[in-house]
Design a protein that fits this description.
This protein is mainly alpha-helical. It has 20 helices and three strands. It has a three-stranded antiparallel sheet with strand order 2-1-3.
């Protein structure tokens, strides 16, 4: 349920409006970040108005998560209470969802609930790896450090995501324009060409026939354009759920470039999680179990699960990594080499952090070059679209002479066969 909070400043008389995603008026006021010199008036947004607001207002994202955890960590380091630390972040987050989260978590803490239990009420925003880290922080008494690390990791993730999105702008625009050209020609040029070729009874190539069928379909049933748009919208909305499916993850891992990005991002998250858990004093077996459950990719889930089994059987950390290194792809041997150093020096936490840092640096480098990598792919796709259009529309023109001119089989007779009558 959405709540609209009007905050009126008693000094200036100016009113600000904020949206909070919660089901209680008091929580809405708490999530709005009301100052001491402001009066709050809460109203409920419902029905069609709520649907419109949910479609148009900002969604919770990694940026809000980074701001939330970094801000709470800063407050905890200065001995501010946990409930108050969350409330102070209400004016820093930008989405109604996170304002509602702040209000709910603050309320749950005030009635004696653990932070991990309060955050666990929002599985979409906080995955199992974050809940596991917060739980470990509560057990070890190092919650401020854990919150700080989650904030730093979220900022790194946000930086990489922004670079990837920036690199996708140019290909997205070009491909969208190409599809728009095809649709426009299907309504304008293709019907005219189709009528000309049909009147002449010409034999047409398959590409031209395909374009004519597409044009006829769009003219007769223009609403079919809604299907790809709806499909794309559903795909974007459920993208996180789709990418969590094991078979989809395996397919992505096989795609050039994309597979490397998927593996590296999952490795960075997994090794960072394991490092933080071990640093927080969680037992190795339990840390591996949590890391396996929270790993983003199916290959890393399997890897850490198998490593845990070997460790429980009495095998060393580095030996367990070496036995299952094939799950890590081409980087498996390098990771095992780092873990061998860790076993000799007794610095497993530092080495795991180094592995995570290396993966994040590689992701950062890839994100910086993504536009250069996608540019030739975009050119090939655009060239294929243009080539298809040119071939489909203009190739029959070169054969029109056979249909527009009369049959020339009876050509002029030789002069020796001509009879002249006087």
């Amino acid at each position: 349920m959405l709540k609209k909070v009007a905050l009126a400043n008693t000094n200036t008389g100016r009113t600000s409006f904020l949206i909070v995603d919660t089901d209680d008026d008091d929580k809405a006021v708490s999530g709005s970040g009301r100052a001491a010199n402001e009066r709050a008036k809460v109203s409920t947004i419902s029905g069609l108005d709520e649907v419109v607001h949910r479609l148009t207002t900002r969604k919770g994202n990694v940026e809000d998560r980074a701001v939330l955890f970094a801000g709470v960590a800063r407050c905890l380091h200065r001995n501010i209470t946990m409930s108050k630390s969350f409330e102070l972040q209400a004016n820093r987050v930008k989405s109604p969802a996170y304002r509602g989260i702040i209000a709910e978590v603050s309320y749950q803490i005030s009635i004696g609930e653990k932070v991990s239990d309060a955050l666990n009420k929002f599985p979409t925003e906080f995955g199992p790896e974050i809940i596991a880290l917060v739980t470990a922080g509560e057990e070890s008494g190092r919650l401020p450090e854990i919150f700080s690390e989650i904030g730093k990791s979220s900022k790194k993730t946000l930086k990489i995501l922004n670079k990837l999105k920036k690199g996708m702008i140019y290909p997205g625009i070009v491909i969208t324009m190409g599809i728009g050209v095809i649709i426009t020609m299907s309504y304008t040029l293709v019907p005219a060409v189709s009528k000309l070729y049909g009147d002449l009874g010409a034999n047409l190539p398959s590409a031209t026939i395909m374009m004519m069928k597409i044009s006829d379909l769009l003219i007769a049933k223009p609403y079919v354009l809604l299907f790809p748009v709806t499909l794309f919208s559903v795909l974007i909305k459920n993208w996180s759920k789709i990418t969590k499916q094991p078979f989809v993850q395996k397919i992505f891992a096989l795609i050039p470039i994309v597979g490397g990005i998927v593996r590296k991002s999952s490795s960075a998250v997994s090794f960072r999680c394991l490092s933080l858990l071990l640093e927080s004093g969680v037992r190795i077996s339990k840390s591996l179990e949590i890391t396996s459950a929270s790993a983003p990719h199916i290959y890393h889930k399997e890897f850490f699960s198998r490593v845990r089994s070997h460790v429980n059987d009495g095998m060393g950390f580095s030996e367990s990594f070496l036995m299952e290194s094939h799950w890590l792809g081409e980087d498996g041997r390098n990771v095992c080499g780092v873990m061998e150093i860790a076993s000799e020096t007794g610095s497993a936490t530092d080495m795991l952090e180094e592995i995570a840092d290396d993966y994040e640096e590689e992701l950062d480098t890839t994100a910086n070059q993504i536009d250069k990598v996608l540019e030739p792919v975009t050119i090939v796709i655009l060239g294929a679209l243009v080539g298809f259009l040119i071939y489909a529309i203009y190739s029959p023109i070169f054969n029109l002479g056979e249909h527009m001119l009369p049959d020339s089989s009876a050509k002029s007779l030789p002069s020796s066969q001509l009879k002249v009558d006087y």
